[in-house]
Write a structure and sequence with these properties.
Elements (H helix, E strand, L loop, with lengths): L4 E3 L8 H14 L4 E5 L5 H5 L11 H5 L5 H4 L1 E4 L2 E4 L8 H5 L11 E3 L6 H8 L5
Parallel strand pairs: 1-5, 2-4, 2-5
Antiparallel strand pairs: 3-4
Length: 130
Amino acid sequence: MTRIIAVTNQKGGVGKTTTTVNLGASLARMRRRVLLIDLDPQANATVGCGVERDALAGTVYQVLLGQAAISETIVTVSPGLDLLPAEHDLAGAQAELGGGSERTMTITACDKPLRPKPATIMCLSIAHRH
């Protein structure tokens, strides 16, 4: 059974990214398969996992817009720990999506401040459909 863990808080600087990356790494070391999805335009979880953004084939931004498949975009960070990386352009994705998108994805751990906005609601509500 897939479990979804969303690490959220409206306030910045409270440790969401640190908690998400370390929780994901710890679960992977316990032989759990983990997919971290970095939904922060600052891409701190992506950088925190040691991923070079310049070398990426794609990011969650392209996935949300339907321009790339999740399978082509996921980066293996370590055994059992995969990452769907972010980029700065993600800040404009909500406006481009218009809130009506029905994109499909699986979220295991999500690094995103919780705000009742269409992109956040979409990610949390359709994760089980993949």
